[in-house]
Design goal:
alpha/beta, Nucleotidyltransferase, domain 5, 6-stranded mixed beta sheet, 9 helices, globular, nucleic acid binding, RNaseH_sf, RNaseH-like_sf
């Protein structure tokens, strides 16, 4: 295996509003959400409640993580490149965050690097914030305090695609399309996660969707690094 691939861990998270019912929020959080929602209600008929269901999940202060999927390259018995994936999913956010942290801390903290799409703007800070809210000390790979820019072990495929163009947002699905990587989008997309969790109660569906995103992310990374495989990437999910 190429050395640069050996210590990479691909990462994707799925997040939802903290509660299914806006009215279940305590009064202090409702007040804070009203201030946040005020930025979105201009020239619309939306209420604090409807905006909460649509947008709360993307803010770590009002949302929670229900799934973390990871992927790591490995050498198959045939000498081909494979990808092992695993998902940490559940209703108890603290429990799944602790499971994720325990796994991460078993790896070499000086070599491990994360890779996510739009990770620097979303996945990494969201993980850190929710860990701290749950009273969990950050693992070394997420604890950036005192680190210089070049010491931060976080890669971001969206940043790789920007080439310094900071106003340019490109979705994972669009990049997968232009690089001819099979899409992770089947019968759902990211905008539906909150409904699938709170209304449909289908965490397994969210878990599968999150795992598919990690596979797409890993294949996209190989394309963007112009790493050509002799055989299609072997994918193995572990429990």
């Amino acid at each position: 295996m190429i050395q640069e691939l050996r210590d990479l861990m691909f990462l994707d998270i799925e997040t939802v509003a903290q509660t299914a019912d806006y009215n279940a929020l305590d009064e202090r959080l409702k007040t804070q959400w009203a201030r946040k929602a005020g930025f979105f209600k201009r020239d619309t008929d939306h209420t604090d409640e409807t905006i909460f269901h649509d947008r709360a999940g993307i803010y770590a202060e009002f949302g929670k993580i229900v799934c973390i999927a990871v992927g790591k390259f490995y050498d198959t018995e045939n000498g081909d490149l494979g990808l092992k994936t695993k998902a940490y999913a559940g209703d108890d956010e603290r429990e799944l965050l602790m499971e994720f942290k325990t796994m991460v801390e078993k790896l070499d903290p000086f070599a491990l690097k994360f890779c996510a799409h739009n990770g620097k703007e979303f996945d990494y800070p969201y993980l850190c914030r929710r860990m701290l809210v749950n009273g969990i000390a950050l693992p070394p790979v997420l604890n950036l305090m005192g680190k210089k820019t070049w010491e931060v072990p976080h890669l971001d495929t969206m940043e790789m695609w920007k080439f310094g163009d900071f106003k340019h947002y490109t979705s994972l699905d669009l990049l997968a399309t232009i690089f001819n990587v099979p899409s992770s989008k089947g019968d759902m997309d990211g905008s539906q996660v909150n409904k699938v969790y709170h209304v449909d109660k289908d965490l397994a569906k969210i878990r599968d969707y999150c795992l598919r995103d990690v596979v797409v992310l890993a294949e996209l990374y190989l394309k963007m690094k112009t790493i050509t495989l002799n055989q299609p990437l072997v994918h193995k999910s572990t429990e």
